Amino acid sequence: MTVSRVLNAPENIHPATLAKVRAAIDSTGYVPNSAAKALRSSRSRLIAAVLPTLTGPIFLDTIEALAAGLARRGYQLIVGQSGYSDDKEDELLTDIISRRPDGIVLTGVGHSEEGRRRLLASGIPVVETWDLTEQPLDVLVGFSHEAVGREVSRFLVSRGRRKLALIGADDQRSQRRWSSFARSARAQGLAQPVAHFVPAPAKLADGRQALRAVLAQHRDIDALFCSSDSLAFGALVEARAQGIEVPRQLAVVGFGDLNFADQLEPALTTVRVDGPRIGELAAHCIVSRALGQPLDERIVDVGFSIVERSST
Amino acid sequence: MTVSRVLNAPENIHPATLAKVRAAIDSTGYVPNSAAKALRSSRSRLIAAVLPTLTGPIFLDTIEALAAGLARRGYQLIVGQSGYSDDKEDELLTDIISRRPDGIVLTGVGHSEEGRRRLLASGIPVVETWDLTEQPLDVLVGFSHEAVGREVSRFLVSRGRRKLALIGADDQRSQRRWSSFARSARAQGLAQPVAHFVPAPAKLADGRQALRAVLAQHRDIDALFCSSDSLAFGALVEARAQGIEVPRQLAVVGFGDLNFADQLEPALTTVRVDGPRIGELAAHCIVSRALGQPLDERIVDVGFSIVERSST
DNA sequence: TTGTATGCGTTATCAT
DNA sequence: ATGATAACGCATACAA
């Protein structure tokens, strides 16, 4: 008990005792046991994050900022990969809930019914990220993928493009950008855009192959929206290989504004999302919730912007 | 107690009891408490990983494979960022040790004396990665950065290059590649190579700026070794901007073989390391150690290869 | 086949 | 200012 006090409330301890206990701690290499602490206090100082994949460069900035923000606030981060699969996410969720984290940060808002139930039943605070919905589980930090699809299609039309195409990954958020992109194009009087999907996570080489496939069927497209900068990079490479001039014959828009986007030839027009901001906000929100502190807003829309460069 | 048995050893439970308990579990949403389990059994099923940064694309494949490998084996991963700083690593280690993970995976072998002491005192199995040393703390999965520096210099000399330069990040491993690169160049009768360092983690833009700085002083260099593909990408961009032909006037070698390396113009010659293999091996080793199983080898050298493309 | 007692390391609470 | 007791949820050892 005295040791506990020395560590947690040294102010009311006799200096001599303090010194003696600290000496003992040093000489024995004593380190308190967080599991016992958590068991006794029902506070684990652990936050869990569920991500589709750790390698997706898009989420990376967010995780890094999240990890840093949590560390700064005295929390540790436990990560799980759902691999873009609902079943995997549900399994993971059970494991995670058994750890009794003080909070859970999810990527996206599309969870299985079972997953939603378990999360709500656990009573653990949840922050969903990288997406927007009217009915979040709890707190939400993200932006609208529908708005992205719509704005990109309007942007392309405003630049005089008429034959739109899209290369996307088969994950939920990319699909929603696609739906909105297509709907908006039709609303503006264009034909239904061409689409080609590749398995997530999409790699550069997928972009090359995908554009090749699209061009084989639809040589007349004049604008291409790629659901990631990596895909766009691949598309630029393929366009050059096929002698298609970008942007004269084909406008290309990416997603993510990864650090190579402005160095490509031509520099890539892309959708920029403030990943670190999402991570930092998520850290703030989840910790506030964990401490039972009130939150200004339950839904934070961080927005996005279209960074216009020479590929359009 | 019966609930515990239903969950962990259902074979000796009366079918009726089994059904009753399971129904109760379902209806109440009971999820076992890992902290209590850990406290009782001294086995947390938790592995901690310490990384310089989560965004370094180099380690990413390793972390992903590590996370996947651990999940497959029923372990969860807790991550911490040391930010290339010893002090931060030591702080982190204390937090980590207090969690009583069943194992710790470290990046690199350069830890502070204090850190080494704490790790050894904790008795927690440790796997060091991405480096090689004669005296690992425990298990090691990596490769020799000295060998990388040496082999790249030999490679460049064998291709007729005589005025070597290096652009590196100021992290330990990059520095060791540099020392060896320089030593080997001198041993081959060349002058001391030119070097320029940028703060880790190095970004593409740093590569541009660094090459500009090097060229301002040493216009006559004919070969450049960059300590990451991102830096090399930036260097290629700058070389083109300055009208320097690669590889005719300047050979460029990267490190990492990131997925864009073969798509650059010219395609980048680079050092390839099997990141996923390191992660998977680390998962295997740390779990074996955690279970007290014997290990074939304590030191695994996964090696590296120089992938020759058109930038040299 | 099921149940009871006990202790893992911590801290809230109540003595002293 | 310090110590004693109890309880967090689980699983080992033992009993029935």
Features:
11 helices; DNA-binding; Rossmann fold; 312 residues; six-stranded mixed beta sheet; transcription regulation (chains A, B); 45% helix; six-stranded parallel beta sheet; homodimer; DNA-binding (chains A, B); alpha/beta; transcription cis-regulatory region binding (chains A, B); HTH_LacI (chains A, B)
Mean pLDDT of chain A: 95
In spatial order, strands of the major sheet of chain A run: 2-1-3-4-5-11
Question: Which stretches of chain A are low in confidence, meaning pLDDT under 50 for 5 or more residues running?
Answer: none
Q: Report strand % of chain A.
A: 15-25%
Largest sheet of chain A: 6 strands, parallel
Discrete helix count of chain A: 11
Q: At the fourth CATH level, what is the homologous superfamily of the largest domain in chain A?
A: Response regulator
CATH architecture label name of the largest domain in chain A: 3-Layer(aba) Sandwich
The helicity of chain A comes to 40-55%
CATH third-level topology of the largest domain in chain A: Rossmann fold
Q: What is the compact description of this entry?
A:
2 copies of one chain form a homodimer. By secondary structure, chain A is of the alpha/beta class.
